From TrEMBL:
Listed name of the protein: SWIM-type domain-containing protein
Alphabetized SMART domains for the sequence: ZnF_PMZ (SM00575)
InterPro entries with a match to the protein in the record: MULE_transposase_dom, Znf_PMZ, Znf_SWIM
Keyword Zinc annotated: yes
The organism of origin for this protein: Acorus gramineus
Length: 405
């Protein structure tokens, strides 16, 4: 429910091997909240990762979330997943983790030059910038460029991303963060593992609901920090107004067009991420009376964050108490198989409520979208290229979306 109400329509999918004597694989679907932290949506334990497993997982995922407008998946193209997604979500966007793509690419075309250029291609928000870097690859190896051009069915560059999900991540770091978050449970017996993960999710939601009550203002902290950072870097841009809502914004090497009424910039960073790019920021801040925070997409609003964590995971009694039925304010959040006698209350059940939170109420690099036709340093709104793909990230750490380590 929190995913539907408050998260961006984005799900990272991944499989992760268990370490206990029973072996098996954890399949997971992980989204991202308004503050760019992971939000676990679904997980399952399966015997092996294969087409049937993913198909079963996606069927159950669909039965839980239904059709989501503008839904986008990110994956490592795990075995069987590529076919399973369109079966249940035929209109969803499917992005490929560029880290995974590069692992395959470098088997044929190793070297630092190709590595740098691949990431530049991936981080390009617009086609001219993507093509510029691709031509660099072509000048080094026409076969390498042909290889990449053949991946047309895989969206791995921001220039290929639609604006629907408001997310510019080019790696599946969100799923890797989930795997790291549950790492200590992977050697547990299956039931204990599932229970431990359930506890972690339950407490995480409660903790973040409390954060939502404490925070003030319109935007979540990471979005606010982004805005405060980007306005410091607008000095080198020249704004030539065409009207109240249109302007040319010229940087050192190129000129682009910003439209405030459509919330677009020809660099496409604003559309893809939902955060005003440096060009938009330069225009907005030169207009008296405008607040740049008003031009940040609502997916980064504090209200969306609170909506995400408004519902609770209901507590579950220990095994000996499970024949006793429980009255929950939100029975949907409790495994129905355990509700044998509805409307009977056990003493501690009053704590199991939902929708209570709404009544009460970290990206360090300079955020700059890539230029058109100029090498891309891999920075951009809502991103910090230094952390993406770092499996040491904990779930409470920021999940950054851009570039390589
Ligand atoms: Zn721009």
């Amino acid at each position: 429910m929190g995913f539907i109400k408050g998260c961006r329509p984005f799900l990272g999918l991944d499989g992760c091997h268990l370490k206990g004597k029973h072996k098996g694989i954890t399949l997971s679907a992980t989204s991202i909240d308004a503050n760019n932290c992971l939000f676990p949506v679904a997980f399952a334990i399966v015997k092996s990762e294969c087409g049937d497993s993913w198909k079963w997982f996606m069927e159950n995922l669909y039965s839980s979330i239904g059709e989501i407008r503008g839904l986008a998946f990110m994956s490592d193209k795990d075995k069987g997943l590529e076919a399973a997604i369109p079966l249940m979500f035929p209109s969803a966007e499917h992005k490929t983790c560029v880290r995974h793509l590069y692992q395959n690419f470098k088997k044929k075309y190793p070297g630092e030059l190709f590595e740098r250029l691949i990431w530049n291609c991936a981080n390009s928000y617009n086609t001219p910038s993507f093509q510029w870097h691709l031509r660099e690859i072509k000048s080094a190896s026409s076969n390498a460029a042909t290889y990449l051009e053949g991946l047309t069915a895989q969206a791995w560059s921001r220039s290929q991303f639609t604006p629907n999900a408001r997310i510019g991540y080019v790696t599946n770091n969100i799923s890797k963060s989930f795997n790291a978050w549950i790492n200590k449970t992977r050697q547990m017996p299956i039931v204990e593992m599932v229970e431990t993960i359930r506890h972690k999710i339950m407490e995480r939601i409660d903790h973040r609901r409390a954060l939502g009550r404490k925070w003030r203002g319109k935007l979540v902290p990471k979005a606010l920090k982004y805005v405060q950072t980007i306005v410091k870097d607008i000095g080198e841009y020249i704004v030539r107004r065409s009207s109240d809502v249109m302007a040319e914004v010229a940087g050192p090497d190129f000129t682009i067009v910003v439209r405030l009424d459509e919330r677009t910039c020809t660099c496409r960073a604003w559309q893809v991420t939902g955060l005003p790019c440096i060009h938009a920021a330069a225009f907005i801040t030169r207009i008296r009376g405008l607040d740049i925070c008003d031009f940040v997409d609502e997916v980064y609003s504090l209200q969306k964050f609170r909506d995400t964590y408004a519902s609770s995971i209901a507590p579950m009694p220990s095994k000996g108490f499970r024949s006793i039925s429980i009255l929950f304010n939100d029975p949907q959040s409790f495994p129905t198989a355990l509700l044998k006698k509805p409307n009977t209350v056990v003493p501690f059940s009053s704590a199991a409520t939902s929708n209570t939170g709404s009544k009460r109420g970290n990206s360090a690099n300079r955020p700059q979208p890539p230029p058109i036709g100029k090498p891309n340093k891999g920075s951009g709104p809502q991103h910090n290229s230094s952390n993406e793909g770092d499996n040491k990230n904990t779930a409470d750490e920021k999940v950054n979306n851009n570039g390589k380590n």
